[in-house]
Amino acid sequence: MRVDRDVTIIGGGLAGCEAAWQLLKRGCGVTMYEMKPERFSPAHTSPLLSELVCSNSLRSNDVESAVGLLKQELRCLGSLFMEGADETAVPAGKSLAVDRRLFSEYIQGKLLSFGDHFRLVHQEIEKIPLSGCVVIATGPLTSDLLAMEIKRLTGSDYLYFYDAISPIVTADSIDADKTFWASRYQEGDGDYLNCPLDEPTYTSFREAVLNADKVSLRDFEKPRYFEGCLPIEILAERGGLTLLFGPMKPVGLMDPYSGQQPHAVVQLRKENQTGTLLNMVGFQTKLTWPEQRRIFRMIPGLENAEFARYGSIHRNTFIHSPALLNERLQLRSHPSIFFAGQLAGVEGYVESAAMGLFSGLSISRLLEDRELPIPSDTTALGSLIRHITTPGKREFQPMNVNHGIFRPLEIRIKKRERGKEYARRSLADLCEWIKVQEV
């Protein structure tokens, strides 16, 4: 199939911008449609491209973890997402976190540097073009009008779940005399501000969460939460100890005031490079805003907290990609249309950017009348693509990258050494794929 070298990208998030970057680098023209700032979704506030709406953390940067390995693979493939993240990083221990505004500015500036080859149109798309190559990367907050158009095009019902956003607190409103900086299992000052709770305080906090007013869902909507990003009130409902094994886990931390491990801990992480904003780690929530003010100020150190952003809840939308997409992320019924990002059935910032990157690579080869086979399932990228495109899954839910979707290791190895072996095998195989495919 021969097509012209101009590509339409719908959506200016992480996946859309990464796809655009890969295409522009290879001499293609890109027209990107982004409805901001003409219209914002319930969770977006910035007019910039590649806005991070949930957390500013990109999770682990350790290649022995699956997501850290995926990050390194993206670096090997010349990812703009990873270039921007590395350039705008803020301290976050073993994780990679960014100053979200500087990150968005970096991504947008790089794309605009291509001049006339990159055309940015601030307009909501209601009809999907059926001529030329199109990337649909509108993300989990796809507008209702476009969602209906995609549903009509695919002939498939949507699946959906709900994702909640953590609050952000101003640093100067936190009581430094009741908190301490530390990272788990590390000596000295760390990258997380810790609010320690004793057992009575924790018990009162959990009871307040259980009895608080929550944001109501519409009658016809059934919540299906992503297990890796559960609201704290859902965790609290699952038992008295559940929060202590989740976002309030005290393990690996020592309270310098008591000289003991706290009963529970609330951690906050820098939201920007200046450290004036702190994100409540793992505290995604659907509590009403007044209840957030009341209950989160029960946490020691946050009695006078000023909230720069409250937690909120929004609908995440995605297609049943195993039934709809092939391994090149093409819509089987319309091969000129590609899906990328969370809409394609992955979960997480890094995974979304990865799907954008591969859709861009796939289209660039299509425009040359060549196909691009996906990397081996020994790699994080190849495993993730296979997970979302292998037919036969009746029940399908978005998933973060994890070692469970990789091809199993061919050698028996101690558990603590497996991450290292996954990384060694993956990066070797990806480098060979890059060389053979001339990517």
Can you walk me through this structure?
The protein is an alpha+beta fold and 439 residues long. The protein folds into two domains: 6-158 and 319-437, 3-Layer(bba) Sandwich (FAD/NAD(P)-binding domain), CATH 3.50.50; 164-315, Elongation Factor Tu (Ef-tu), domain 3, CATH 2.40.30.260. Helix content is 31%, strand content 17%. The strands form four sheets. Strands 6-2-1-7-17-16 form a six-stranded mixed β-sheet, with helices on one face. A hairpin with a 2-residue loop joins strand 16 and strand 17 (334-339). Helix 1 (14-25) runs parallel beside helix 10, helix 2 runs parallel beside helix 12 (415-437) and helix 3 crosses helix 4. The longest helix has 23 residues, at 415-437.
Largest sheet: 6 strands, mixed
Give me the strand/helix succession: EHEEHHEEHEEHEEEEHHEEHEEHEEHHH
Radius of gyration: 22 Å
What structural class do the secondary elements suggest? alpha+beta
The CATH topology of the largest domain is what? FAD/NAD(P)-binding domain
The largest sheet has its strands arranged as: 6-2-1-7-17-16
Name the helicity range: 25-40%
Mean pLDDT: 92
Give the strand content: 15-25%
Number of helices: 12
- CATH architecture grouping of the largest domain: 3-Layer(bba) Sandwich
CATH superfamily of the largest domain: FAD/NAD(P)-binding domain
Low-confidence stretches: none
Shape: globular
Distance from first to last alpha carbon = 21 Å
